[in-house]
Amino acid sequence: MANIKSQIKRNRQNEGLRMRNKSVNSDLKTSIKKVETAAAAGEPTDELYKAAQKKIDVAASKGVMHKKTAARKKSRLAKKVSA
Prior knowledge:
This protein is an all-alpha fold. It contains 3 helices and no strands.
């Protein structure tokens, strides 16, 4: 347990950021999974794909994931949708 005031504050900040990142990642994984299951079932994926793409962009802009990781995820998702 930290005794220093600044470290106690830093721990609070880190926990808040960790929870935000966890929430964004969880939401992102869910939306990607929805697109993949719809594509595998042969259902229309236009709206789901746009929503997933937007969530990937949001995660990249918030710093939850690197921008190149986001680009790779979008590319792979597009490939699955078009197949």
